Amino acid sequence: MLLGKIKREALRLANGLELVDFGFALPYTWVLVEGPEGRALGVAMTLPEEVQRYRNSITEPSLEAFIGKADSINAIERTLGLAAINAVSQYHIDLSGAEWGDVLELIPENSGKVALIGNMPPLVRELREKGYEIYVFERNARLWDKDTFSDALEYHLLPEMDAVIASATCLVNGTIDMLLDRAKRAGLFVLTGPTGQLLPEFLRGTGVTHLAAMKVVDIKRALLGLKLGSFKGFEEGNRKYVVEVM
Fold first, then answer.
1. Nearest one of 27, 31, 79, 30 to 52, comparing CA atoms
2. Which domains does the chain have, with CATH numbers?
3. C-beta separation of 58 from 84 below 8 A
4. CA 220 to each of CA 41, 233, 240: distance values in angstroms, whole numbers, following the listed order
5. pLDDT in tens, 102-121
6. Cα distance between residue 105 and residue 1, in whole Å
7. What is the mean pLDDT of the chain?
8. Cα separation of 38 and 40, whole Å?
9. Which residues contact 228 (CB under 8 A, 6 or more apart)?
10. pTM above 0.90, yes or no
11. Helices 75-92 and 2-13: crossing angle, nearest 10°?
């Protein structure tokens, strides 16, 4: 399981970092860490539809305790674990070779069939306007429209796709391994969204080609947005980037 591999690598890099604060919240769960080089904020999108039992086995919060639960079957523990891994990743990440831009810039013309894992309306609209042949898959029925496929069809249709743009919440709901296995034909596989703040080296050799995420450049502003449950408030403290998984 990919999350198991990622958590082992993150635990090694967490050495010397301190858990400053955290919150399991909407729209994002967040973890704030601090080390000799300063502070870093990691997030993971909270998926209420995935939470079945509001119980967390962690009684003494720590960075290591959170990361250790990143591959838990408990959605609360898994979300906190991913936010902690992202905080560690953002502390260590080197974005000197990153492109400060949007995921749209990665998709070449005449790219064939493009799958979007997660209904992301602004991205869907722009891709359709540009004439791409896109297939939108979504688990949450509340986000369906007439052109949206159930995520149950991912298993059958992903082998036909030439490019995949996947919301990084596939790490939260535990579908990342299946997606990578079924999308082996795809020459482009991007994890996108704030939940994709991982260190690129965590994904080396997996089939993921790029990460399109957000770097928190104003922690105070972004953290206030998170505490107020505001997408816009959080994003105002961020800068989008795209980095290749080498």
1. 79
2. 2-92 (3.30.390.100), 103-219+238-244 (3.40.50.11590)
3. no
4. 10, 11, 17
5. 888 888 877 889 999 999 98
6. 30
7. 93
8. 7
9. none
10. yes
11. 50
